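[audit] Reproducing an earlier prediction to check determinism. Same input, same settings, fresh worker. If the C-alpha cells differ from the archived copy the diff job will pick it up downstream; this log only records the rerun itself.
[audit] input (112 residues):
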Amino acid sequence: MEIRLVSSQEAALYDAPLQEGDMMDSDEYTFDKFVVGPSNKFAHAAAMAVAEGQTKAFNPLFIYGDSGLGKTHLLYAIRHEVRRRHPEYNIVFVRGNDFMNELIAAIQAGRN
C-alpha cells in the first residue's frame, strides 16, 4: 500500500467520474493496447476483422465473457480503428437493454 498527500486539485482528478465518451475517445482502448492471450485471441481477431471492414464474416459480432476480459476494450478498439479509417462515419453505441426496449416498442407499434 502506498499513502500520498496530494493537493485538492490532484484529489479532484481521482474523484472525477470517467465519462463513457472519455473512455471511447481514449487512446488506451486500441488494438495495440489490448493484451491478447489464449482465451481471447479469437475475439481479438474477429474484432480486428470487423474494424477492417470484413463484416460479412462477423455480422453480427457477439462477444460474451466474464467481467474484466476485454469486451469493452475490443468494442472501443473497433470504434477507434473505424474512426481512424473513416472519419466521416457516424458511430452510435446503444446499450443492450435500450436496444431491446426500443425494438419491443417498435414491434408493438408496427414500425420496426
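[audit] rerun output stored. Observation attached for the diff report: The mean pLDDT is 83.
[audit] end
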